[in-house]
Write a structure and sequence with these properties.
The chain contains 25 helices and 20 strands. The protein is an alpha/beta fold and 679 residues long. Helix 14 crosses helix 16, helix 15 crosses helix 16 and helix 16 packs across helix 17.
Length: 679
């Protein structure tokens, strides 16, 4: 037997992401692997068990490995923990490193009157007012009958599989509607669903005479109870994920649908704590905001609320349950304030602020189908980001002139194996036919860094964001997977009958990488005997080297699409999820703007076009600056499109150019942002 004495240096300890990395690594070995922390020893192949250890930063663990491949497992686990389990480690003994990738916490707003009981923690910004609707947890009535051990276990297995199918569909939906980052929440739910220790506990309870529903409910409650008592906010918050998975399986076991309360009018929900699943399914037209008595700003429901743009206040205390159903409240998702039965003046003020927002949004939506042309006649093409057919339809409804970033990851994430060529062809064809004459730019599979999938082994790297991800990973290790995707795209293009399509490769940093990908594309097209006359081939500019060497790429690529999220973090050397530095990773930093300007100049000199598909494209403070820098296309998430078009129509390109040149001369992102907001 091998033993490893290790220290966890991760900033947030052995929380969900590094724990998942460790568990998945342990599962690749046949040896029995245990982790001991304090007086507790758990199965290293159990996600829930590892989380219940509550290992904080600098916590010591003892790993015991016993089996035929113990030597290999020992070496791999040692290196994985040493390198941060998928996260880069904080500064230690003078060594510089980036903080872990846990989503940025929302700090409680400054409280002027700490005795004010009508206050929680602001979790998602925005001021809204409306009637209260109490969102009650399901009350599952557990059965007392017992069908017999094997029959009960079979019911549990069937219900777990039903829940798995739902979660896989939810991963796809959230990836397409929000991002792969939010979808990772439900990938973690899939991990919980298949947890060997949890399932073993359920089986033991059934063997001891319990029926399946009671066994499942009790086992999950025990695990969630242990986690909720951990002296660590991030780890304790994961108890909500276990309970969410528990209720999903119970709904199948008991043939009882999950919360199906009908929301008949726009309301502010009050709940004990919304589950991540419920939050992801909220209809923004009917849910103005929500208040929870429990939970926290780091809980997954809060993270999803921020991504959806739904104002939310959490950890408000039990008083919110005493608010009468239908009572009017004002919710401030920034400060955490809750006003119950506000005065007419306060309600008027809140309603006026809301009305101004709604009116502006309505005008923008009404004109969304019109082109975005500046006051002096310059057209900016406005297109949408997304995935899935439904997402493309939504983009069209919101005025997208095409799809500037079709994230194909939604087909690959949350699955045990890669989608077949036929499955890919069908989805790509539907997307092309949905958009018809409006062009679609498909990004090839962008895996690595923070987007792992079970069937793709990403090399264990000290800093995965500076390693093999995107096109590098595909070319170096999975060329057949990339070839299959290119084949599917070409066949879908031919089958759809559309005249135009574009494909771009992510994370291209060197001309040699581009040429290798380009060569593969043309080889596949030749093999299929499909004409590429209507297909544009380009690269994403996410790596500073690609921007600095844009003149070389422009000789061969048809277009550039600048991914400002990654370009910013690589330029600034700041992870955009860093808990303290993230605010400094601003795409409006003059250094990032200079790289955008260099890319535009090189492209235009070669008569090629440039788009922006990162978050900066929808940033109101950036619109005039990007137009002034010469960007030809702006690609944003569907909800941002109408307002983006409206802003462009109010601009003069000539004035934008002056603003952009001034922005390039400034010293900081803060100065540039102030310029963009006031100009």
């Amino acid at each position: 037997m091998k033993q490893l004495d290790l220290v966890i240096h991760n900033e947030a300890g052995l929380h969900a992401r590094p724990a998942k990395t460790l568990v998945n690594l342990a599962k690749t070995f046949n040896s029995d692997i245990k982790i001991k922390h304090g007086q507790k020893k758990v199965n290293a192949k159990s996600m829930i068990s590892v989380l219940t250890l509550g290992v904080k930063q600098s916590g010591q663990i003892l790993i015991e490995i016993d089996g035929a491949d113990e030597a290999e497992a020992s070496e791999a686990i040692f290196e994985a923990v040493k390198s941060g389990l998928g996260e880069t480690l904080p500064t230690t003994n003078g060594a510089q490193a980036i903080e872990p990738l846990e989503p940025e916490a929302v700090e409680p707003a400054a409280v002027e009157d700490a005795t004010d009981e009508n206050r929680g923690i602001g979790a998602s910004a925005g001021i809204v007012s409306g009637p209260v609707l109490h969102w009650l947890d399901e009350e599952f009535e557990l059965p007392t009958t017992h069908l017999g051990g094997q029959a009960e276990w079979s019911l549990v297995e069937e219900s777990v599989q039903g829940a798995r199918s739902e979660l896989e569909a939810l991963v796809e939906k959230v990836t397409a509607d929000l991002s792969a980052e939010e979808a990772e929440i439900f990938n973690a739910h899939l991990e919980i669903l298949g947890d060997p220790e949890l399932l073993s506990t359920v089986k033991d309870k059934i063997d001891a005479g319990s029926n399946g529903a009671n066994a499942w409910h009790a086992a999950c409650n025990e695990q969630a109870g242990v986690m909720s008592q951990l002296d660590d906010e991030l780890l304790a918050a994961r108890a909500a994920d276990v309970r969410d998975v528990s209720r999903r399986v119970l709904s199948h076991l008991l043939k009882q649908p999950l919360n199906s309360k009908i929301i008949s009018e726009p309301s502010i929900l009050i709940a004990r704590d919304l589950s991540p699943s419920d939050t992801a399914k909220l209809d923004k037209k009917m849910v103005l905001g929500f208040i929870t008595s429990e939970g926290g700003p780091n809980a997954h429901s809060a993270i999803i609320a921020r991504a959806l743009g739904i104002p939310a206040v959490v950890a408000s205390g039990a008083f919110v349950h005493d608010i009468k159903e239908g009572a009017t409240v004002i919710l401030n998702g920034g400060s955490g304030e809750i006003e119950v039965d506000p005065s007419e003046q306060r309600l008027t003020e809140a309603k006026e602020a809301r009305a101004i927002q709604i009116e502006a949004a309505a005008k923008a939506l009404a004109a969304a189908g019109e082109r975005a042309i500046t006051t002096d006649g310059h057209r900016i093409e406005v297109v949408g980001n997304g995935g899935s057919v439904a997402d493309c339809l939504s983009c069209k409804e919101n005025g997208a002139e095409g799809i500037g970033l079709l994230r194909t990851e939604f087909l690959f994430l949350g699955k045990e194996s890669a989608p077949s060529e036929a499955a890919q062809i069908e989805v790509y064809r539907q997307i092309l036919e949905t958009m018809q004459e409006r062009p679609v730019i498909f990004r090839t599979l962008d895996i690595g860094g923070d987007k792992p999938v079970p069937y793709i082994t990403v090399p264990n790297e000290e800093n995965p964001f500076l390693g093999e991800r995107g096109v590098r990973l595909m070319l170096n290790h999975y060329p057949e997977l990339l070839k299959t995707q290119l084949t599917a795209l070409l066949k879908a293009y031919q089958a759809s009958g559309v005249e135009k399509m574009a494909i771009m490769f992510p994370m291209v940093g060197q001309v040699a990488e581009w040429r290798k990908a380009q060569k593969m594309f043309h080889a596949v097209a030749k093999e299929l005997n499909i004409s590429t006359a209507g297909i544009e081939l380009g690269i994403m500019v996410e790596v500073p080297s690609a921007a600095l060497n844009a003149h070389a790429f422009a000789k061969e690529a048809d277009f550039f699409s600048i991914g400002t999220n990654d370009l910013t973090q690589y330029t600034m050397a700041i992870d955009r999820q860093h808990p303290t530095l993230a605010g400094q990773a601003d795409g409006l930093d003059p250094a990032v703007l200079r790289l955008i300007y260099l890319t535009v100049q090189a492209a235009h000199a070669a008569k090629k076009w440039v788009g922006i598909c990162g978050e900066l494209a929808a940033d109101p403070a950036a619109t005039k600056i990007l137009i002034g820098l010469g960007v030809d296309e702006l690609s944003a998430n569907t909800n941002a499109l109408p307002a983006l078009k409206a802003r462009i129509r109010e601009c003069s390109k000539q004035e934008c150019e002056k603003i952009a040149q001034k922005a390039l001369s400034l010293d900081s992102a803060a100065e540039v942002r102030a310029l963009g907001q006031t100009s």
